[in-house]
């Protein structure tokens, strides 16, 4: 069929041209909107400026075709071949390109907003300054594609392959990039604010000057990445791998990066106001100075001396460990959650639930915090649900008094300040616990559940990974003793009352305080 015959039939109302062969045909400026061109061969055809909106081009061959300025809004191009096609300024808004092949296609300034490109092959394609707002690119192959200056706001790029792609100056704000492959990609000055990059592979990627404010980079792989001058304010970097990454002069104000691995990373000049310095791995880090000013304006520069990173950062989070000599069952789990929820209403500092490890014999509750000074207060409140609470709390008070009585002359100014802050927080916790106990809203669920009567032990761990035992029930780990000294047996209470602080050595207790992390630098 010739072009003339096609246009004549279309004008007469015919729309079914499935399988038509018009290779190398000149169809520039024609109107074939709504036509059925399923399986058509239009390779090397000239369709520049043509109106193909809502046309069915499923499985069509358009290799090396010229479609510059063509209108394909709402068209169906599922599994179509558009390899090396010229699609400059083409309108593909809300088009279906599922599984389409666009290898090395030219899509400069193309309009693809709302288009479905899931599973499409765009490797080596040029999409410079293309608009893909809200487009679906999940599982698409964009390896080595050129997307500099492209608009991909709120686009779905989940599981897409963008290895080695050029995304410099691209706008990917609020985009979904979960599980995306971005290894060695160029994201210089790209906008990724609010984007979901959790678990993304960004190894050796260039993110210099990139806007990552409020982005989710949890579990992301950023080893060897260039994040110099990047804006990561309020970003989620929990458990991210930043091994040998360059974070020099990066903005990390209020970023959450607990669990991040910065082994061998460069952090000189980074803005770290309100960013945690605990729970971060920093072995071999290069950092000469950091900016602690609220706005990153260099008004509060802190210089790190040789080896100073070990004092400034600590890998361990201060933790209160409560070990219960019994596995957690469903009923106890429910009661535990309900009790701690109610406690948190009265004592917001315990609003973060503990991590729970359950083995065949024991349950471990770990309360992690961002300050050593909160250890004693948190421990005092966290033990409330258990039968061992009174004795454990007495031991905490006794421990604090022991520290205070030996403070003079044995601790420096900063260490004494830690004692003062810890004591102040503990006293506040004591008064709050007294209020909680008499509160009519405080649940009594634990009283009828055996789990809370089981022997416990409590250990405090500071940010230097030093441990101190607060309480260890005499029947803990001893099955026969537990049977002998049942929860209602007065002898158990007497034994617990006589439990000492493990023959506490005052020098080891003071060393524990000396291991507290200094935050007032």
Textual characterization of the structure:
With 521 residues, the protein is of the alpha+beta class. Helix content is 20%, strand content 7%. It has helices at 3-11, 309-312, 330-346, 375-382, 389-405, 413-438, 479-484, 490-497, 506-514, and strands spanning 289-291, 301-303, 319-324, 355-358, 363-368, 456-461, 467-472. A five-stranded antiparallel beta sheet has the order 4-5-3-6-7. It has a two-stranded antiparallel sheet with strand order 1-2. A hairpin with a 4-residue loop joins strand 4 (355-358) and strand 5. The longest helix has 26 residues, at 413-438. The radius of gyration is 32 Å and the shape is elongated. The N and C termini lie far apart (81 Å). Residues 485-499 have low confidence and may be disordered.
Write a concise keyword list for the protein shown above:
521 residues; alpha+beta; 5-stranded antiparallel beta sheet; two-stranded antiparallel ribbon; 9 helices; 7 strands; elongated
Low-confidence stretches: 485-499
Extended strand count: 7
Query: Which term fits the overall shape?
Result: elongated
Could you tell me the strand content as a percent range? Answer: 5-15%
Compute the average pLDDT.
Answer: 90
Number of contiguous helices: 9
Secondary structure blueprint with pairings:
Blueprint lengths: L2 H9 L277 E3 L9 E3 L5 H4 L6 E6 L5 H17 L8 E4 L4 E6 L6 H8 L6 H17 L7 H26 L17 E6 L5 E6 L6 H6 L5 H8 L8 H9 L7
Antiparallel strand pairs: 1-2, 3-5, 3-6, 4-5, 6-7
């Amino acid at each position: 069929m010739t072009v003339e015959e096609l246009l004549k039939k279309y004008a007469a109302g015919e729309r079914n041209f499935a399988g038509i062969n018009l290779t190398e045909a000149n169809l520039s400026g024609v109107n074939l909107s709504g036509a059925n061109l399923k399986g058509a061969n239009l390779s090397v055809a000239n369709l520049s400026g043509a109106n193909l909106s809502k046309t069915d081009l499923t499985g069509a061959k358009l290799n090396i075709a010229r479609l510059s300025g063509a209108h394909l809004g709402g068209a169906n191009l599922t599994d179509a071949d558009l390899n090396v096609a010229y699609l400059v300024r083409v309108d593909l808004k809300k088009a279906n390109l599922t599984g389409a092949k666009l290898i090395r296609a030219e899509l400069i300034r193309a309009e693809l907003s709302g288009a479905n490109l899931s599973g499409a092959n765009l490797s080596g394609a040029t999409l410079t300054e293309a608009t893909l707002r809200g487009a679906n690119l999940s599982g698409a192959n964009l390896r080595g594609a050129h997307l500099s200056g492209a608009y991909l706001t709120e686009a779905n790029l989940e599981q897409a392959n963008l290895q080695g792609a050029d995304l410099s100056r691209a706008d990917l704000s609020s985009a979904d990039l979960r599980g995306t492959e971005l290894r060695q990609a160029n994201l210089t000055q790209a906008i990724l604010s609010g984007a979901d990059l959790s678990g993304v592979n960004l190894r050796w990627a260039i993110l210099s000057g990139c806007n990552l404010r409020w982005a989710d980079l949890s579990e992301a792989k950023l080893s060897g990445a260039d994040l110099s001058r990047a804006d990561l304010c309020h970003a989620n970097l929990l458990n991210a791998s930043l091994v040998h990454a360059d974070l020099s002069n990066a903005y990390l104000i209020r970023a959450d990066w607990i669990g991040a691995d910065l082994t061998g990373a460069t952090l000189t000049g980074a803005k770290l106001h309100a960013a945690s310095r605990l729970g971060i791995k920093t072995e071999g880090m290069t950092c000469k100075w950091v900016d602690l000013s609220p706005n990153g304006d260099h008004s509060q520069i802190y210089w790190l001396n040789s080896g100073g990173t070990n004092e400034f950062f600590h890998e361990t989070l201060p933790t209160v460990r409560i070990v219960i000599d019994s596995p957690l069952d469903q009923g106890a789990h429910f009661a535990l959650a309900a009790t701690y929820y109610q406690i948190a209403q009265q004592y917001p500092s315990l609003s973060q639930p503990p991590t729970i490890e359950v083995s065949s014999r024991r349950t471990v509750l770990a309360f992690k915090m961002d300050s050593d000074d909160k250890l004693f207060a948190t421990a005092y409140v966290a033990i409330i649900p258990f039968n061992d609470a009174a004795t454990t709390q007495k031991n905490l008070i006794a421990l604090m008094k022991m520290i205070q009585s030996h403070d003079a002359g044995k601790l420096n100014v900063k260490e004494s300040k830690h004692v003062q802050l810890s004591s102040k927080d503990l006293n506040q916790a004591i008064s709050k616990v007294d209020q909680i106990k008499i509160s009519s809203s405080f649940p009594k669920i634990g009283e009828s559940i055996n789990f809370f009567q089981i022997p416990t032990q409590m250990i405090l761990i500071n940010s230097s990974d030093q441990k101190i035992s607060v309480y260890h029930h005499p029947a803990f780990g001893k099955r026969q003793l537990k049977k002998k000294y049942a929860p209602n047996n007065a002898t158990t209470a007497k034994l617990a009352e006589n439990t000492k602080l493990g023959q506490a050595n005052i020098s080891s207790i003071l060393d524990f305080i000396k291991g507290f992390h200094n935050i007032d630098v």
